[in-house]
Amino acid sequence: MTTQQKKINAAKMALKRIRPGMCVGLGTGSTTNEFINLLGQEKQLLKTLRYASSSIQTETFAKKYSIICEDIDQFNQLDVTVDGADEVSRQGEMIKGGGGALLREKMLASISKDYLIIVDDTKMVDYLGDFPLPIEIMNFSPNTTINLLKKAFKAYHLDPEIILRVNSDSSSVITDGGNLILDCHCGQILDPNLLKKKIEEIPNVITSGFFLNMISSVFVGDEKGSTEVFFE
Ligand code: 5RP
Question: pLDDT by residue (tens digit) across 44-60?
Fold first, then answer.
């Protein structure tokens, strides 16, 4: 069984939650793309839905099924957002942003009645932090921001290597919003709630890849199918 098949198994379960007429938020990444591939087969259903996307990448991918995404500002609320994740703890805390879409993903999550996460079983972890925590910052003074972040981490007994995300030609990765991303190699994070607050107080930080207390359900795809894990 490939990881891709596990992602498809998770996506199939999320698809069952989509009802005619819903406003649907689309996340970013390979697992979300599997969801879009499945939705693309539901020709009647997909015509009844309205969509907002978390990235230009997703918007472009969805177009191959004639799924047209509207500006987020067109929606006061979304019925549901379906998105992937980089790590999900047993308490429902997440790290996201591996694909660089964390800001818009968080915006969609914040206006969604139901926030459904689809992952293969390798993404479920006992604690967050093996995956580098992405932090989106203004396109401005990354080195000073790294120094301020180091101080914030130190208060929580963490001393991560913090690396500016770059493309293969060494130019800085620029997000859809025109911002930079710092990847923080933390290791085990014991209290993401306090750390998130501290990080997001730094003036140049737009948002962190911590998505806490946001999930409605996680669909975990494995060899046999998919399991739903609920969160309050
Ligand atoms: C993008 C994300 C993605 O959801 C996350 O990186 C998971 O991606 P994939 O489904 O390709 O493993 O947060 O910013």
Answer: 999 999 999 999 999 99
